[in-house]
Specification:
mainly alpha, 79% helix, 0% strand
Length: 130
């Protein structure tokens, strides 16, 4: 007869582990967006006469790329700090980490929404130029 070994993590420990995994996913997605912006602009330039991007498009994507880089650096730094959340010994400590995580999650979601709208506008513009 074999005995199963159960891991008795608390709910908060499970949340911290899940959040750590999610932070890594955000980091990967933000790295991807940085590369994707360059590729999108290159494709768009190739789709229009004289391969010259409108100044407005360049400015919008430049700002979005800068915002992406700032968020990337913030999430990366917080991800490294978040590993200490497992060491919390009281609820106030846990809540401080979870509160900051939630604030970052909202910033990340807002950033993705803005980026997706910008990308949609680029596609719409490129398709109109055909």
């Amino acid at each position: 007869m074999t005995h199963k070994i159960y891991n008795h993590d608390t709910d908060v420990d499970v949340v911290h582990k899940y959040n750590s995994i999610e932070l890594k996913g955000w980091i990967n997605q933000l790295q991807y967006i940085d590369k994707e912006i360059d590729k999108l602009l290159n494709l768009y330039a190739q789709s229009i006469p004289e391969n010259e991007l409108p100044e407005r498009v360049l400015l919008l994507f430049s700002k979005r790329k800068e915002a992406n880089q700032q968020l990337y650096e913030t999430v990366l730094k917080y991800s490294n700090i978040y590993s200490k959340a497992m060491e919390c010994e009281d609820i106030q400590c846990d809540m401080a980490y979870l509160g900051e995580y939630e604030r970052l999650r909202k910033s990340y979601q807002y950033h993705l929404t803005r980026y997706q709208k910008l990308k949609d506008n680029l596609y719409d513009g490129a398709l109109q130029d055909y």
